[in-house]
Amino acid sequence: MASGARIGVVGATGAVGQVTLGLLAERGYEEVLAYASARSAGLSVAFGSGSLTVEEATPEALASADVDVFLFSVGTSASLELVPAAVGGGAVAIDKSSAYRLADGVPLVVPEVNGDRAVEHAGILANPNCCTIPLTCALEPLHRAAGLARVRVATYQSMSGAGARSMERLRAQSHEELDLLMEWDFDGEEFDEEEKIRLETRKILELPQLPIMASCVRVPVLVGHAETVWVETEEPLSADRARELLGTSPAIELDEFPSPGKASAGSDRVHVGRIRRDQTVENGLVLFLACDNLRKGAALNAIQIAELLLDRQALAA
After folding, report:
1. Catalytic machinery residues
2. Residue 311 pLDDT
3. pLDDT grade, residue 24 (50/70/90)?
4. pTM of the shown model
5. Which residues pair with 215 in a beta bridge?
C-alpha cells in the first residue's frame, strides 16, 4: 500500500540521494520526484529502468509539489530553509541532516529500535547519524535484556560519509596518499561527530544520562562504516546470550568477522560479530559492527520511517 505514495527526494544527485532513488525503485515506488540544487537542475538521474529529471529544490517548488513524503539528504542550512516549506505544503519531511535531530518534539527514529515514536511527529522526523543508527540497533537488545551502564565506541568511517566528492577524491589518490582523517569540527576536546553520537544515542534509547564516549576517525574505504563497541551492562550478560539476543533482531545479521566492505556494502542490515567478554570490567562485552552507511545508515532508514507512517495511514483509511 505504501508503494503508491508520492515521494520527493531532495538531494537526489548526492551519494545518499542516489541510493535513496535506487531503493525506492527496488521497493516498487513509481510516483517519485527528484530535487537538487540549482546547479543540478535539469540533469537526469537513474530510477529503476528509466530516469528522472531533477527539479530545483526551492521553498516554492517543494510547497506546491503535492507530495506525501519528502526524503531530505542535504546539508543542515539547506534543510533549515527547505523543510518548513515542504511541511507547509502538507507533506511529511524526513530529514537526514543534523538540523532537527535534537530538537524538542521532533522524533529521532530507528524503526527497529523506537519505531513507535514516529507517529508522534508534527510534520518533521529526523534520520539519525550514520554511526548512531547501527550503534543503537546493536545496543537496544542488550539494554532490554540487562540494562546499559556505560558505552564506549570507536568508529572507522568511510569516505562516502563525507559525500560523493570525497569518494571521487579517494578514487583519485595513490596508495602513498592514503591516510586516516579527522576532519570534523573540533572544539578543542572532541569532534562534533562524537558529540552527535552521544546525544543522539541517548535520545533514541531514552537514556538521557547514559555515559557514552565516542572516538571517530575516517578511513580510506569507499562505502561502509565500522565500529568497535565496549558495553557495560547493569546486570550480568554472557557473550553467548548477547549473541542470541542480537541474532533475533530484525536489524542485525551475525557475522563472525564483519567487514565494512565485503560483508556489509550493499546489505540492508547491521553486521555484528566478535562478540566477547570484556575482561577489564565487570559485566563488560565487546563487539564489532559494520554497516553500509549509505543504505541502512542513511537512505534505507529514512524510507523505513516513511513506510511506518504510510502503512499506518493506509490501515486507517
Report:
1. 130, 225
2. 87
3. very high
4. 0.95
5. 154
